[in-house]
Amino acid sequence: MHRPSGCKERIRMNTREQDGISGLRHYLEGKRVVVIGNSESQFSQHLGARIDAYDAVVRMNLGAIRAPEHQGSRTDVVFTSSEKLSAAMIDDWFKPSWVVWATPKREKMPDLSALGERLVLHPVEIWEALHARIEPARPSTGLIALNFLFQHCKCAELAFAGFDFFASGTFYNRKFFGLIKHPRKASKPHDGAEEQRVVADMIASGRVRNLAQAD
After folding, report:
1. Which of 20, 43, 141, 196 lies in disulfide reach of 165, CB 3.0 to 4.6 Å?
2. Is residue 210 pLDDT above 90, yes or no?
């Protein structure tokens, strides 16, 4: 299996990383958790109040709240793989209790030391197992978050919204940091069809639901 560069010596987590992951799992245990993706299509769904009713709200990367009536109004956990998202931006945009660096490319992580013990490193071996299911594509940050919560946390309930597997594009790609991208190109290097298949398996288990489709 291909392993991202820089990861060969980091398969075993050190004690601090293990404590961080354990702390996050403990925080989420028994909670009703919802993961909010960054699709453009979410801005017609009016799910904000239902999102806010969950015990913990998870967001990703540059997906700051721009329309609370659709996205909800708070963030408890942020999963990020963005080199552009600084600790100051995370606190300004999200004010989260926890932040997870999602990619195994630790050398790409910006200086997030100001987050202190709120910062957690997503385990490389969990990423590799997920990657093996969809390779050669790499898992998106949203899929990494859902997979971690589904496979490795004891949530009382797990739901998601704002995912359409790149059909409508990522809402912030054309707005921030001068990134002028066509939405259809935003999924690379990810595979929306493969990610949808993985999430469909989660839904079929009865342990995950799509909030946009739930009664």
Report:
1. 196
2. yes
